[in-house]
Amino acid sequence: MNVEVFIPCFIDQMYPNTAINMIKLLERAGCKVHYNENQTCCGQPAFNAGFWDQARGVGEKFLKDFSGEDIIVTPSASCCGFVKNYYPKLFENSAQHNTSKNIGKRIFELSDFLVNKIKFTDFGASLDGTATYHDSCAALRECKLKQEPRELLKNVKGLQLIEMIETDTCCGFGGTFAVKFDDISNGMATQKLDNALATQAKYLISTDMSCLLHLEGKINKENLPVKTMHLADVLVSGW
To answer: Range of 231's domain?
Structure first.
C-alpha cells in the first residue's frame, strides 16, 4: 500500500526520531512510504487560538501538499482529529469544502491505521518493564481510539501494561490552553502524573507527543521516576 506521511511541525522540530520510527513501522508493515518535504503545519494552533483566517491559509497549503489519493498516516491523534473533524467547518461554503471532507476520510492516526486498516499488530518489539498509558483527548474523543494502542502494546515482549486511574482525563496541555491558563494546566498535569506514578510504571506511553511534551517538562523539572514514550518509539524497541 502507498501511504503519505504527515509529520506535525512540533514532532519535526522536537522529536524527529518519533517520525523516523513511524516510517520504519510502516515500511516493516509492507507500506511504500512517501514524505512530501514541502509539508508544514495543519493549522490547528491558529484555529484553536481563534485565528480562523490564518488557519485557513495554512489549511489550504495542507490540502495542496496532500492532494493525491493515497492514505495519509500521522503520529499525532491531535492533528489527525483536527483535519478529520474541523476542516469541513473551516472550509465550509468554500471551493475547498468537498476536498476538505474527502481528505478527512484519507487521514489516519498511526494506531488506527495499523490495527483497523491493515491489521498489522505485531512488530517484534521488546521492552522490559512496566508501562501505563495516557488516553489523549484527541485520540479518545476526536478519533474514537481506545483499544487500538493497547492492542499494539500487548504484543511488545517484556512490557507489562498497568492502567492508571482516570486514564481518559485530560493532562492539561490543550495547546495554547497551557499558556493562557498555566496554573490550571499545571494542576491537571500534576493530577495526571500522580495517577501514573501510583502504578509504579517505568514508562508513560501515549499516541500524542504534545501531551507527552507537556508532561515531560514537569517530569524533568521535578525529577520524577517515569519516562515518556510515544507509541511509535515503543514499537521499534528491541530491533
So the answer is: 122-235
